[in-house]
Amino acid sequence: MKNTLLAATAVALLAFGPAAAQGRPSPAEAKAFVEKAEAELAAFSEYVAKSAWVRATYITEDTQWLEAKATAEQNELVTRYAKEAARFDGVAADPVTARKLKLLKLYLVSPAPDRPGAAAEISTLTTRMDSTYSSGKLEHKGKTLTLNDAEDVLAESRDPAELKAVWEGWHAVGAGIRDDYARFVGLSNEGAQGLGFKDTGALWRSAYDMDPDAFAAETDRLWKQVEPFYRNLHCYVRARLNETYGDAVQPRTGPIRADLLGNMWAQQWGNIYDVVQPKTAASSYSLDKLLVDKGYDPEKMVRTGEAFYVSMDLAPLPETFWARSMIVRPRDREVVCHASAWDLDDRDDIRIKMCTKVNGDDFYTVHHELGHNYYQRAYKDQDYLFKNGANDGFHEAIGDFVGLSALTPTYLQQIGLLDRAPGAEEDIPFLLKMALDKIAFLPFGLLVDRWRWQVFSGEATPATYNDAWWTLRTRYQGIAPPGPRPADAFDPGAKYHVPGNVPYTRYFLAHIYQFQFHRAACRQAGWKGPLHRCSVYDQKEVGRRFNAMMEMGASRPWPEALAAFTGERATDASAVAEYFRPLDAWLTRQNRGERCGW
């Protein structure tokens, strides 16, 4: 998408007006329709994007009203345009026009029903859910904690009672979102059905240049490629948690308690490296400590991320980026802290929005978010409907690909954070740290939309939302809540992308694509060592080839974009296996005698 927010609030366009002719339209009429749509999209986009930016960086009743009004106009008018596009089904339009007509139908992730008041209602609901989440608080030990504060507790505390209390405190935020979410689902489905889709889930699955059912099967295939490694990692981590906390807190068998994994959603486990680190090999450095010791502040972290892209022969960020981005959390107002990258004018007004902290996690996140900005700028000369990623997984994978290099000891030495990169004796500690984030994420990246597909199809109802959520979390992740959940719990609502209405399968795909990109780039650079030690920092020819792929935007089906850089037309998780092969073998040895699985 043009930025991480556009999944929930795509840009508006004006109505096309009455049909130019009666009967079957001609190819020329289809082309004229698309050209008019694109012109009006471009004219309206900045207003909608800026209303969303103001609300996200200054949450008040007024800014929520402004964004809801803008997105209501957008939703109503885009839905009308998408329905009008269906008039050209079966027309022998040229390939470019045909692709644009398809993209127009998929433009909104939640189109409003085509009836008075529906667009305003769905926009009010999405804005309110997002703001309820973003301004959520909990009380703990006499203090009021934001989500950022609560995340710090989950990352740093090793007291299971405290972890449980803070985990349950944040998840209570979801209960206030459930009723709005149920109403939103009904409206979104009605809108999707009006465009000819079975439900909203089918609409989402149609955005990958293949049949919706074929796409679901494709994600199953990819999961099967990586699932054995995930189960190996799960088995090892569970045993170490059992050794730390004992059977009463974390049994040696069965699911892992969700609050013990160092992350509010148990989606990344790197924060508990100290608990699960190898007993016979140690890491000689902490990226958190290196950043602090070298005097990094949030802006220096972002400038370091920019320098990586510049080293690959991409242009520096514009001065407006530094003047207009939100890099730290303001002290005087409520904001949406969830990190995101923005393109407000579809040309050069690119920005990030982060509540940046000086630590390794945000060092990586900076490189990731800037990937969105560099992608946005690369395709800025495409026609309007092609100003997008090859698919939404590509948009997430661009920065993740750079992030793989950014976390290597090789790169940390290249930029002076390390005096000397450790040798092979530290490969297992490094790969374990990477797996705790990259591999641990994969089942979560898959299941969030699996749950929403069930919700949109009616398989999961409001009465069973939470039970369905935990069924999937146990099936795929092998985790369980720290205690019984209240009858009114809506734990999916405690994850931003659900109230924020951001499709999530993109992140699962990105965790596959990034390794394909990384392997291809390292081959292009002539790297001969282990894949996990490769850094493409300062590889200008790699950067030029990568930028050529990004410049394609959404103008061609994603397999063509993938092939343009990697030479491969299919998504393939074998690069993940190659990257982590030494760790997988090591984990297998560590798990001998364990009863793996759950």
Describe this structure in words.
With about 600 residues, the chain is mostly helical. Helices cover about 55% and strands about 5% of the residues. The chain has a two-stranded antiparallel sheet with strand order 1-2. A two-stranded parallel ribbon has the order 3-6. The longest helix has about 35 residues.
Task: Characterize this entry briefly.
By secondary structure, the chain is mainly alpha-helical.
List keywords for this structure.
598 residues, single chain, mainly alpha, 22 helices, two-stranded parallel sheet, two-stranded antiparallel sheet
User: Which sequence of SSEs, written as H and E, runs from N to C?
Assistant: HHHHEEHHHHHEHHHHEEHHHHHEHHHH
Number of helices: 22
Based on CA inertia axes, which overall geometry fits?
globular
Rg from alpha-carbon coordinates? 24 Å
Percent of sequence in beta strands: under 5%
Number of extended strands: 6
Low-pLDDT sequence parts:
1-21
How is the quaternary structure best described?
single chain
For the sheet with most strands, the description reads: 2 strands, antiparallel
Indicate the topology.
Layout: H1 27-57, H2 61-85, H3 95-105, H4 118-134, E1 138-140, E2 143-145, H5 147-156, H6 160-171, H7 178-194, H8 200-205, H9 212-245, E3 256-257, H10 273-276, H11 287-293, H12 298-311, H13 319-324, E4 340-343, E5 350-353, H14 360-378, H15 392-406, H16 409-414, H17 427-457, H18 465-477, E6 479-480, H19 505-524, H20 540-551, H21 558-566, H22 574-590
